[in-house]
Amino acid sequence: MMTTQQAPAIQVRGLEKSYKELRVLRGVDLTVARGSIFALLGSNGAGKTTAVKILSTLLRADAGTARVNGFDVATQAADVRESISLTGQFAAVDEILTGRENLVLVARLRHLENPGKVADDLLDRFSLTDAGGRKASTYSGGMRRRLDIAMSLVGNPPVIFLDEPTTGLDPQARIEVWQTVKELAARGTTVLLTTQYLDEAEQLADRIAILHEGRIIVDGTLAELKRLLPPAKVEYVEKQPTLEEIFLALVGADGGKAHDRNIGTDA
Ligand SMILES: Nc1ncnc2c1ncn2[C@@H]1O[C@H](COP(=O)(O)OP(=O)(O)OP(=O)(O)O)[C@@H](O)[C@H]1O
Ligand SMILES: [Mg+2]
């Protein structure tokens, strides 16, 4: 018998979903190993959020099966919900509350003992201790995202879904979120994230799948995906010299000394 512990964190087979005439998912298969980071790539409207909503039991599939943490999303929805958290495409932070109050609120909603300690531990882990007493409305985009992800970790769910975690963030804030996600996986949490950024998948993911026209058209490690492309070609490109190169050509790479030395050597 396959126990919950041995099963992959996420297993999806033949998943289908339509909105009226619009066939968004047309037979999606994917497997996510425990403790790994899996990136689901796709252009706008490909169905990434739809897939995440089905896996997090917010939406019912028309056909196919999906198991999360060993539980069937259709028949064991409550067990799935206990096993996951979802950080949506738009932050769920309450702006009026402080960072700490946001975390305490979630810990209370999840019926955890000692919500204050849970909040303080997460603030510490996400480098938000100093900002913990400030209203979330005063946070930068990156801090808000980190708080949002921290909120989704209350109660230590083994599987977390991040729907476009860095959309709209500046490069520095994106790097902060990437660091956070890497730390999560290092602690054994399984992360399924959706993104439109290829570099994000490249930075983070153990495995990358591309959702296109309702199906997974590619699924593999970065190295495997790179092998699908034709080998790199060497091209000769006419390059305008930089001012530095012009300068060095005019005065000589070592300020004209080579010229003097050459004369000396020739003599
Ligand atoms: N509730 C709904 N009713 C009707 N159509 C919907 C609904 N939700 C999504 N769609 C449509 O389904 C398609 C897939 O949407 P989805 O949000 O899953 O895409 P996505 O890959 O997450 O896109 P994005 O990158 O823009 O977030 C889109 O064409 C969208 O307009
Ligand atoms: Mg989406």
Automatic annotation (TrEMBL):
Q: Which GO terms describe its molecular function?
A: transferase activity
UniProt xrefs under SMART domains: AAA (SM00382)
Sequence ranges assigned to domain ABC transporter in this UniProt record: 10-238
Q: Which Pfam families does the protein's record reference?
A: ABC_tran
Respond yes or no to whether keyword Transport is given for this record: yes
Q: Which domain of life is it from?
A: Bacteria
Q: How does it sit in the membrane?
A: Peripheral membrane protein
Q: Does the keyword Hydrolase apply?
A: no
Question: Which key words tag this protein in UniProt?
Answer: Antibiotic resistance, ATP-binding, Nucleotide-binding, Transferase, Transport
Write out the annotated subcellular location: Cell membrane
Which family is this sequence assigned to?
A: Belongs to the ABC transporter superfamily.
Please state what the protein is called: Glycosyl transferase family 8
Question: Which species is listed as the source?
Answer: Streptosporangium pseudovulgare
Species lineage, top-down?
A: Bacteria, Bacillati, Actinomycetota, Actinomycetes, Streptosporangiales
